[in-house]
Fold this protein.
Amino acid sequence: MKLNHQRYPHSRYLHPKYWHLSYPLALAGLLCAPVDAAQLEIDVINLTHGNHFTPLLLVAHMDGHLFQAGEMATLALQKMAEGGDISDLASDATANGNITVENPAAGLLAPGAKVTGIMLDSQAMTRLSVVAMILPTNDAFIGLDAWSIPTEAGTYTLDLNGYDAGTEANDEIINGAGMPGVPGIPAAPGGDGGVNGSGMQDNSSNDRVHIHPGVLGDTDALGGPSDLDSRIHRWQNPVARVVVQVK
Amino acid sequence: MKPSDMMIKLGLGSLLMAAVLGLGACSDEKPPSQAPIPSNAPVPRLYSVTVTNLTANQPLSPMAVIAHSADMSLFRVTEPASVALEKLAEGGDTTGLVALFGVSHLARGIEAIPPGMSDTVSLSIPTPLVAGLSVATMLVNTNDAFATVNGYDLRSLALGDEVDLYALAYDAGTEANSEARGTMPGPADNGEGFNAARDDVNRVHIHPGVISADDGLGDSVLSASHRFNNPVAKIKIHRSR
């Protein structure tokens, strides 16, 4: 032990990397450390095979929700889910005194990409929500709904599901449409979408926010029912991983 | 000891690590001079790991359970898989895992786990080495899907405790999900296992699921029952000593 004290400054024991060297000491250090729950450092990882995320919105807030499964989407949420436009959600949040981080990835978050080190000073806010549209889809989005920010310092890993805003039929047609209420998919950012699809029949009657059933796609880039590629654009949950360091 | 309890202990690497960790963790003890475990050290901790296959029609290859250092990771999403992981994900071959840096113990199941069935292996780990535990097994009727719990912290498990974890299916990203005849080692195909070529996105990610011929992938030898959804396995870890 004496030897290790010389080799490793005491403070480094607090880093998780060194827990295996001196776990009891690190644990004691953590329990004694003053906790400031306001400082968050956040990573967002795209776990999908072939889907992009549009600009992310992170909101630290008290009560309320950006979205809620089983509830109708707001128009602001619909704009995000159908077209990737987070501006209304962000301005609503700001108007309510919440704290936002908008578009930390500076654009699209490609499949397999991650954005790290998002700093968010949540101040007195106790909840964290995250959304972004999944492209190419009609109205799918990644969602973290009012996660209770821990008061204990540490690293927390959250897996996010893909939600369906319930506002637009999943016809899987890429036609450039991203405005709320206009059928179709804005784009396939990977350049891997098809054309001339006849349109999937979406017989869902659920017009509330729900877990997305996933896309079907097909293997005919020049026709078939879908403009999506079943070998590229399908996903299973979770679709995103959010790693939150509470400092 | 049942065959499935068979445990492979590393030689030199384990000795060195035990020596280092012994120094770091046992504050009141003299550093060990030669043996991996000081004679006055506490008895090793004993863990059992039970994997239950939750899929409809995807046998799981004999499970691999590795004990490893706290900062070792079997894989990182968004990054390429190691060749050892590629061999597991494409062919169910667990042998390469023991050589990964930071791995101290490997326990392997003997037989594949049919859908709905379970298998258990045990690991005895000297207390100073107790840190991370990872479990991995291939969904054999796929090109390169594997179910895993990556880096569970065993130190949070008190004597007599057990924990249930649910494994997600990941895609190793090392082989295209063609589902084509001859490309998958499971009973649906009896095709090839490991192939050194990497013809997919070359990063580990959440598996998008199999499509199957029944859902429009013309060349697929899989059918509807081979599809799966998360979670694909339940993993129970129990500490009995």
Observations:
- Chain A has two domains: 2-32, 35-247.
